[in-house]
Here is the input.
Amino acid sequence: MRIKGSVPLNGTIEISGAKNLALPVLVATLLTDDKIILKNVPHLSDITSLLDLLTYLGTVYNFQQNGTIELLTKSLKTTEAPYDYVRKMRASILVLGPLVAKYKEAKVSLPGGCAIGARSVDLHIKALRQMGTEISIDNGYINAKAPKGLTGCDIIFPIATVTGTENIIMAAVLAKGTTNIINAAMEPEIVAFCDLLNCMGASISGQGTSTIVVNGVESLHGTEFTIIPDRIETGTFAIAAAVTNGKLFLKNCKYSHLASFFETLFLTGVVHEEKEDGLIVYRKSEKIKPVDIQTAPYPGFPTDLQAQYTVLMSLCKGAASITENIFENRFMHIPELTRMGANISVHGKTAVVTGVNKLNGAPVMATDLRASVSLLIAGLVAEGETIINRLYHIDRGYENIDEKLRNCGANIERFSV
Ligand code: EPZ
Here is the structure.
């Protein structure tokens, strides 16, 4: 991607469906023999990777350009999720719960490491064992068997885990008896995911609080469901508007999904106006005020917006500390931003950002999804030209991002060398 800064972004951006809801919702097709119809599913490479795995398992689907997809898993071909699929997209671990719940067995590759951290799945495994699954780990694979089916019980997560919560919910919906998930993740995607499963005949309550109660049922049926807007995409473009001192109308997003994020942005001098079908976001004050953040599970400041927020603070009047509490290696954008003139020093899980007057365009390297998009935002505000390599990281989580930004005045083009 070649970006010529610095251009204030002005216009409207249509927020796409939430990647981190679409992924677990697609996997839910494994829980029923009926057809599921989903609307507003974003066309992203992470979604394609998951659909490749589901096809391998036996799902058939028809994915239309307009984001509507029909899926049917009538006859499973295998209960094995090979390393080649799982390594491409770690959320593939989500097939473990439903395969054991409905087919009483699964052989799923361990996801392995990831750029942002070890991202172990030990809590997924521990919880499934508590529900009656015999699990052994051999040659990098999770071998799971539950010949007598699963039994509901109390699951206490020592830390809030998003896909851990989702995996156990899918295991519990067909288990015998009730499962109480304590210290469950509370993200809007978890709430919507439970709503979908209830539309399929599940009996779930408490979603959105730290205790989710799942009463097992005999079977689930098909349904039609619409994916909620992507709050991380919303936050990403809100910061792009603020950093470039522009004004964006973010269509279809919900303020309530990002309340603590927007409250932080308000303290930096960035305001939003709520409309019935979206938010207008712009910077009210000339200068960007420094505001410290700590990332935390929902409803705290989202870790997925930490890198983008770092770009905003790199141009603040003063200095701010940014503490990453969720992942152990989520500062890979910092050396690249430093090459663009940012003044940031890292001490363990805290980065201290001292504001500079401007950033300068430079060739930079994308590393993980959110670090990559933070470099793109930096390129929009930097003076001169920025070249971002390894764009596949960005295409994993942002649908048509260059087109959306070009429509708001950005000088941005994709090219291959
Ligand atoms: C989900 O990942 C999201 N992915 C991530 O978004 C997001 O950053 C993360 O939640 C935190 O909000 C999807 O929903 C597909 P966790 P997940 O389990 O579920 C540790 C993006 O950019 N942990 O909530 O994998 C883990 O290492 C992606 O869209 C264990 O130790 O995250 C991490 O430090 C990146 N053992 C912390 O918990 C476990 O068994 C939170 O991880 C599970 C997790």
User: Anything to note?
Assistant: The first strand starts at residue 2 and ends at 5. The radius of gyration is 21 Å. Residues 19-20, 23, 91, 117-124, 159, 161-164, 303-304, 326-327, 369-370, 397 surround EPZ (CB under 6 Å). Residues 17 and 229 are 4 Å apart (CA to CA).
